[in-house]
Amino acid sequence: MKNLSLAVFTLGFLGAAASGVSAFTSREGSRVNPVSDTVFEVVPLAGGSGRNFWCAAGDYAQRALKTPWEAHLYISRSHGLSETTNRRSAVQFTLQPALAGSPDKGVFASVNSLSRGNNMRVRDAFSLCNQLPVGF
Questions:
Q1: Other CB atoms closer than 10 Å to residue 112's CB: what's the count?
Q2: How many Cα atoms are found within 13 Å in the side-chain-facing hemisphere of 20?
Q3: CB atoms within 10 A of CB 87
Q4: Distance between CA atoms of 124 and 45, rounded to whole angstroms?
Q5: Which of 135, 91, 94, 87 is nearest to 115 (CA)?
Q6: Using the 8-state DSSP alphabet, how is residue 51 labeled?
Q7: How far is Cα 6 from Cα 78, in angstroms, rounded to an integer?
Q8: What's the pLDDT band for 105 if we cut at 50, 70, 90?
Q9: Sign (positive or negative) of CA dihedral 98, 64, 31, 130
Q10: Mapping DSSP to helix (H, G, I), strand (E, B) and coil, where does residue 32 land?
């Protein structure tokens, strides 16, 4: 039984490694996958709140893309089905305002609205990683 379990684990690990070569895991556990050269998708653990999406986008922009803290992240596609996984909850981000409908900087109704064109600085998005969930 141990050999079977080890074989299943090894195959699962190799399959995950092969399919997720370019994936990034944020500090809070959300996956970030490139959609194109200019767009990336955040796929949180089990649904996620707006804070989780923005945190993962800021973390990816800063640590993986080495984007300056003052650069703006834009939502290019609002909350919906993932294009890079089989998950139901994903949001796509970009650093290019034209891909988000060219909104004014600093536009968002709330962190949880996750609408196309919403944007914030990388620093502000990353700072959401250090907040406790509401109701804690």
A1: 12
A2: 13
A3: 15
A4: 21
A5: 91
A6: H
A7: 40
A8: confident
A9: negative
A10: strand
Amino acid at 75: I
What is the rounded CA–CA span in Å between residue 136 and residue 122?
25
**Quick count: other Cβ atoms within 10 Å of Cβ 69?**
13
pLDDT score of 90 more than 90: yes
Task: Single out the residue of 30, 8, 21, 18 nearest to residue 90, CA to CA.
Answer: 30
Distance CA 70, CA 133 (A): 25
| Strand runs labelled E in the chain | 24-25, 31-34, 39-43, 72-80, 90-94, 119-121
131 has a pLDDT exceeding 80: no
CA pair distance 119, 54, nearest whole angstrom: 9
Listed in order, strand segments (DSSP E) in 45-87 are 72-80
Over range 94-116, report the average pLDDT.
Answer: 88
Contact predicate 84/43, CB 8 Å: yes
Give the CA diameter of the chain: 59
Q: What is the pLDDT of residue 11?
A: 41
